[in-house]
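Input (structure):
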């Protein structure tokens, strides 16, 4: 018999069982144009925040949080990734032990060690002590719980959001966690409250995101999806399979297949296994025009050592529909999986331009993101 149903300090009603899907990468829908020295839009690296009604959030005037950013340099003066940063903080040793104790802890560690960015809401040791007392658990029982992986994943969301970023949102909002559950974020008396728990140590900076120390263990709610939504999702395919079923994109699919066998195949592997992503997909006519302009043959481009990088510069982290893009404060620049900065703009007649190419077939939906057909191959300077 497993441990009793958890309750939180702020709400002693039973919490619904955690979902079985642990690391579902989704993107919150709050996007705003950042200052130039912030690389324009860090939220585009996988962060979208949606309101309770699912509408796009408009940014309120930025407030100045009282806490300063905490930067923990390594021996070389560099910041460390999220997991290593937490490991260096004694007050989060229980959380670090929990990450290491999960049956599939490697998946969680790998996720948080990836490029990200991520925002982690980290319960401190005192928070875990209170959580254990409220639920009649010991540390050993918690670490052995089959729900531990999901509990941990529900403390992380895609995208890097500092305290100032959160306070600038139209709170309250709900965001989806890496565990696939909904997490409510609100402001109470100037404090940021996440899943009913207060942020007490904001802005612990890491190379791949930011950590906010919490005074309690977050218990997110199960996502509410209808049968019709589930059925519609079952009919969708992943991005690569979706493109493979569209004859107009056969040249792109061939290029992806060649890149998958190259030394630079990580970009393709990420596109197949991860997500969500937004892909700006040149159609066959776009590739024909590109080859003619560059004086190359199809065989030459498929044999190019730059092929994987070119493909990677057509992909950004996060799922952004045409409506999401048009709701942004354009023009913006966003980082691609290929490491370059990609300009997104809108013409006076409402067309979306990505890297100078026009979106001609928007919102081709896939299980791990969305595809927008474009009328040209994007060529951007490498980072």
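Output (sequence):
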């Amino acid at each position: 018999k497993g441990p009793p149903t958890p309750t939180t300090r702020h709400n002693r009603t039973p919490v619904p069982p955690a979902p079985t899907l642990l690391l579902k990468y989704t993107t919150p829908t709050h996007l705003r144009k950042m200052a130039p020295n912030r690389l324009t839009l860090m939220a585009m690296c996988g962060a979208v925040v949606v309101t309770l009604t699912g509408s796009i959030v408009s940014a309120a005037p930025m407030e100045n949080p009282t806490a300063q950013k905490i930067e923990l340099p390594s021996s070389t003066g560099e910041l460390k990734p999220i997991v290593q940063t937490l490991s260096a903080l004694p007050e989060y040793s229980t959380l670090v032990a929990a990450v290491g104790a999960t049956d599939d802890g490697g998946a969680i560690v790998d996720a948080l060690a990836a490029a990200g960015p991520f925002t982690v809401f980290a319960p401190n040791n005192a928070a875990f002590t209170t959580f254990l007392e409220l639920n009649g658990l010991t540390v050993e029982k918690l670490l052995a719980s089959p729900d531990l992986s999901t509990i941990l994943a529900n403390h992380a969301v895609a995208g890097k959001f500092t305290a100032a970023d959160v306070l600038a949102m139209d709170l309250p909002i709900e965001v989806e966690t890496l565990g696939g559950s909904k997490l409510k974020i609100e402001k109470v008396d100037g404090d940021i409250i996440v899943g009913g728990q207060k942020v007490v140590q904001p802005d612990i900076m890491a190379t791949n995101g930011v950590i906010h120390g919490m005074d309690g263990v977050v218990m997110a709610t199960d996502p509410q999806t209808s049968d019709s939504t589930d059925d519609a999702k079952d009919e969708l395919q992943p991005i690569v399979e979706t493109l493979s079923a569209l004859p107009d994109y056969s040249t792109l699919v061939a290029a992806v297949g060649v890149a998958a066998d190259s030394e630079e195949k990580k970009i393709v592997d990420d596109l197949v296994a991860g997500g969500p992503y937004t892909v700006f997909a040149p159609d066959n006519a776009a590739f024909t025009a590109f080859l003619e302009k560059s004086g190359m043959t199809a065989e030459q481009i498929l044999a190019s050592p730059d092929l994987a990088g070119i493909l990677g510069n057509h992909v950004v982290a996060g799922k952004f529909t045409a409506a999401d893009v048009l709701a942004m404060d354009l023009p913006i620049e966003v980082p691609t999986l290929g490491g370059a900065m990609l300009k997104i703009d809108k013409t006076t007649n409402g067309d979306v331009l990505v890297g100078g190419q026009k979106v001609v077939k928007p919102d081709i939906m896939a299980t791990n993101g969305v595809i927008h057909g474009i009328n040209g191959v994007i060529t951007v300077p490498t980072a």
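Notes: Confidence is low (pLDDT under 50) at residues 7-76, 223-234. The radius of gyration is 22 Å.
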